[in-house]
Design brief:
- By secondary structure, the protein is α+β, with helices and mostly antiparallel strands.
- The chain has a domain of about 45 residues.
- It has one helix and three strands; from the N terminus they run E-E-H-E.
- The structure holds zinc ion (ZN).
- The site of zinc ion (ZN) has 8 residues, from loops.
- Zinc ion binds next to loops.
């Protein structure tokens, strides 16, 4: 259902700084210093920023998986 006047539309936007592109990827991550192992944080990424954000999380050892937005199940776990 589309609600044009809703204050917070649910269209997914890329999490990269300053990027307003539609997100098509979900980066699933966990910071073991802050989160329990079962906890999952998510970032959204457009095609352009998927690599950049994946590397940011990857070098820190936080990245768990990258999924197409259409295949991501928010309530999982
Ligand atoms: Zn982006």
């Amino acid at each position: 259902m589309l609600l044009p006047d809703a204050p917070q539309p649910q269209s997914p936007i890329c999490s990269a700084k300053g990027c307003r592109a539609d997100a098509v990827w979900v980066l699933v991550w966990n910071n073991p210093k802050l989160h329990t192992p079962e906890r999952r944080k998510t970032w959204l990424a457009c095609d352009e920023h998927r690599e950049h954000l994946s590397q940011f999380l990857g070098v820190r050892g936080f990245l768990k998986e990258v999924l197409p937005f259409a295949e991501w199940t928010p309530t999982e776990g």
